[in-house]
Amino acid sequence: MCFPARKLLWFPPWRSLQPHQPVRASYTIGCEETKNVVDGSPSASYMLELLAFLLPVAAASGWYAAQRRYRSDYLRHRAKAFHESYTRGVGFLLQDKVDEALEALSPVIHSDGEGFELRLALGHLFRKKGLVEKALALHENLSSLAGLTKDQVEFVSYQLGMDYLAAGLLDRAETAFKALLETERYRAEALRQLLKIYQRERDWWQAIECARQLRRIQKLPHGETVAQFYCELADNALTAGDSEGAWRLLRTALEEDAHCVRATMGMGALLVESAAWADALGVLSQVERQDAAFVSEILDLVASCFKGMQGDDDFNNYLRHAYLQHGSEDAACMLVERLKCSDDINGAIAFVQEALGRTPSLKLSRKLVMLLLRSAEGAQREALHLILQALPDPTSDPARYRCHRCGFQARELHWNCPSCHGWETIKPKH
Ligand SMILES: [Zn+2]
Q1: How far apart (Å, rounded) are the C-alpha atoms in residues 123 and 104?
Q2: Which DSSP letter does residue 206 get?
Q3: CA of 160 relative to ligand 1 center, distance in Å
Q4: At CA 109, angle to CA 107 and CA 110, rounded to 5?
């Protein structure tokens, strides 16, 4: 039986196309044995064999070129579609049209393995816009992708924690950030977020631990905050009727932060409650060295101390000192009222004139006019009334306190600003 065996040339066939070079070979096509070709033109059968070899090569080359072209066209088309989606989406985002942007960016967002950074940016934007559910869905989808690097996994986990925090899912956020404590890159940031969570939950012991770890890592002075946490614990102890426990916690707060006015005022109040007048006065005198803006806040406690020690004149001197040294208008007004009550009107007028000579004050100006009205008559009295009407009444502004960080104003003193959440950032206005 004859097989269509083909003996392939063992040398390159193009050699036969070179002139002046002898070609000798024997080969078979089908069952026909051919003769040798020596120093002459190749036979027809040889040409057929050559064609049989070249045709598959040409076909393969054509297929490969077509594939390359197809792939190139596909990639170009895909890149163009991405570019158009991206451009339209960014345009909508610039116009603050989040829904339209989301729709425009949909091909990019839902493509697998592409647009990772864009999706992260969008997730961040959604959260910032309050679209927490969309941010969560986006980040949860990202976290399920295969082939993410370690950095990408950690970053997505952090974003998920931030989403949970924004959604008020504090337990999930706590779990996410606790997991990131094991990472080198996100440990400090995770501690910062955990600190926020424990403050919102009023878990002060956990907050203290977090703040201490953060201080060890970053070597930043978080002592002020830790002191406030101890003050919060002292308040809780007082509410539970544990004065001794509250005292110990306030002392610890002062060890953390020697300038903690809140702790000093708390200790002074405890001493006043136990009628330890001299000790209370000694503790409260620290306030003007810690932060003179709070002198007005301790006037009632100091008044109790002087009253307990029978030192009315000494209290007047203290009030004079509080105004002249620290500009406490409340102290000046309290002194004027005390002088009026003791019928020392001339003394009160002399003090107000002295005070106004040092610092202009609307409150004291009104006090002076009202003092002069007591003895004024006729046209002078009418003129004083007109002046009093023209002077704005400072007591008509109910906000006595203002946050020096964010400008939040309040009627009551908050140690933690309800607006910016800064500790001890709210102070008396005057
Ligand atoms: Zn504030």
Answers
A1: 15
A2: H
A3: 27
A4: 70
pLDDT bracket for residue 19 (50, 70, 90): very low
The one-letter amino acid at 62: G
Class (C level, CATH) for 233-310: mainly alpha
Q: How far apart are CA 401 and CA 429, in angstroms?
A: 5
Ranges 15-24, 32-41, 221-230, 248-257, most confident = 248-257
Tokens of 382: 């009418």
Closest listed residue to residue 102, CA positions, set 136, 134, 140, 145:
134
Distance 426 CA to ligand 1 centre (A): 7
Domain ranges of the chain: 13-103, 233-310, 331-394, 397-430
- Which of 93-97, 148-152, 209-213 is the least confident region? 93-97
Pairing, β 409-410 against β 426-428: unpaired
Q: What is the pLDDT of residues 224-258, one digit of tens each?
A: 789 999 999 999 999 999 999 999 999 999 999 99
Q: Which amino acid is at 168?
A: G
Spacing, Cα 423 to ligand 1 middle (Å): 8
For residue range 362-387, list pLDDT tens digits in order. Answer: 888 988 998 898 888 888 888 988 89
Distance 213 CA to ligand 1 centre (A): 25
Q: In this predicted model, what pLDDT tens digit does every residue of 309-345 receive, in sequence order?
A: 988 889 999 999 999 889 888 999 999 999 988 888 9
- pTM reported for the whole predicted model: 0.70
Q: CA nearest 330: which of 307, 361, 285, 305?
A: 361
What pLDDT, on the 0 to 100 scale, is given for residue 194?
A: 96
Neighbours of ion ligand 1 (CB under 5 A): 403, 405-406, 408, 417, 419-420, 422
| 97 in Cβ contact with 130 (< 8 Å) | no
What is the tens place of the pLDDT at every residue in 114-129?
Answer: 567 777 888 888 888 8
DSSP state at residue 30? T
Q: What is the CA radius of gyration of the chain?
A: 43
**Cα separation, 21 vs 102, whole angstroms:** 71
Q: Is the pLDDT of residue 43 over 60?
A: no
Q: How far is the CA of 417 from the centre of ligand 1 (A)?
A: 5
**Which residues have C-beta within 8 Å of that of residue 291, sequence separation ≥ 6?**
259, 261, 427
Residue with the two structure tokens 């967002």: 109
Q: Say how many Å lie between the CA of residue 424 and the centre of ligand 1.
A: 9
Distance in Å, CA 113 to ligand 1 centroid: 43
How close is the Cα of 418 to the center of ligand 1, in Å? 7
